[in-house]
Structures are given as C-alpha cells and as structure tokens.
Amino acid sequence: MRRILVVPMGRVFGPWLERFLQELSDFWRAQVELTQPVSPPAAAFHPRLRKFFAPYLADFLRSLSREVDFVLGVCGEELYSPRSPMVFTEISFSARSALVSARNLQEFLFGPEPESLFVDRLRKEAIRALGHLLGLGSCPNPRCVMHPPSSLMELDLKGTEFCPECQMRLRLVQVLRGEVRFPS
Ligand SMILES: [Zn+2]
C-alpha cells in the first residue's frame, strides 16, 4: 500500500483537515499519515512579494521523510514560482513531493458550504499532484481532475475524478510498473 505523508506548513489547521486526509486515503487507497505542523523555511520567503518560493518548499518537504512514497505539503502561505506569481500547486518530480497552497485555495469561497468548496479544491489539487507524480500528464478535458486550472473558476468547474482517458493511462502506468496485472 502506498504511503503518503501530509505536512501542514504554517498556519493551516482547521476541522477540514481530518476530512481531507480521509478523502485522500479513500481515493488513492493509500496509508495517509499526518506530521506535526512545520514552519516554512525563512530562506524561501520573498520579502517584497510577501510570498514563499514554491519550488524550494516542495523540495524541502522530502527532507522530512525518506520513507514514504509521496510527501504532500498543505501550506498556509501564498506561493510563487518562476512560472507564476500565484501558485496553487507545486510539484517536485525529483523529490516526489508536492505542495498545495491552502491559502490561495481559500480565496473567493462562496455558496452555502464554503468549507466544502475549499476541501473540494484541496482534494482536486492533491489528486492532480499525485497523478502527475504517478506519471500522468496534464489533461485537456476541462472536467477531468488532471486538467491544470489557470484560475479558481476553472478549478471549481472541473470534477474530482479522472476522465476515461486518464483512467486508462493510470492503469497503463500501473501495469508497466507491475503494480497491477493486465487484464484484471
Ligand atoms: Zn483526463
């Protein structure tokens, strides 16, 4: 069974965290573990932007555990990268880790259950990040969870599941890695 370590980074606790962990575990049929919260390293802070450098933090996450398959950070700070001034999710393929900015996903919450919307966003981005780490590419289907959102609106519009093509690709990746037998 895969092991995923979830690392709260900065001020990021809430009643939603438990639900998020459970959903992640159910979706990937993985063993999900939670660490104590860690502070984002000061070296990653940009004083003028008042944001943290996402690629540095994503790599840093791996230093917290060498044992698990994936390390997933949930960050209470705003993130930036060379590619974008506002980052929802940063992935480090070399470190097999990913970082989601809970802070950026908490913007513009609406509807009768804003917290549910937030957990949905978090789940979609976490699933997409792990999908990439498992070998899936970005998907052009705007409803597919592997579609890279360029805005919160796009993120809210897409679903929480893989489209049939991505399901097939994921299956193929798992077959190639010997994780499942074909056909089954
Ligand atoms: Zn897809």
Task: Describe the overall structure.
By secondary structure, the protein is α/β, with parallel strands linked by helices. It has one domain (3-176): Collagenase (Catalytic Domain) (3-Layer(aba) Sandwich). 35% of the residues lie in helices and 18% in strands. The chain contains six helices and eight strands. The chain has helices at residues 16-28, 54-62, 102-105, 114-133, 152-157, 164-176, and strands spanning 3-9, 31-34, 45-46, 51-53, 70-75, 79-80, 89-92, 97-101. The strands form two sheets. The protein has a five-stranded mixed sheet with strand order 2-1-5-8-7. It starts with a strand and ends in an 8-residue tail after the last helix. Bound molecules: zinc ion (ZN). Zinc ion (ZN) binds at residues 139, 141, 144, 146, 162-163, 165-166. The site of zinc ion has 8 residues, from helix 6.
What is the gist of this entry?
The protein is α/β, with parallel strands linked by helices and 184 residues long. It contains six helices and eight strands; from the N terminus they run E-H-E-E-E-H-E-E-E-E-H-H-H-H.
What's the structural blueprint in terms of helices and strands?
Layout: E1 3-9, H1 16-28, E2 31-34, E3 45-46, E4 51-53, H2 54-62, E5 70-75, E6 79-80, E7 89-92, E8 97-101, H3 102-105, H4 114-133, H5 152-157, H6 164-176
Parallel strand pairs: 1-2, 1-5, 4-6, 5-8
Antiparallel strand pairs: 3-4, 7-8
The protein binds zinc ion.
The site of zinc ion (ZN) has 8 residues, from helix 6.
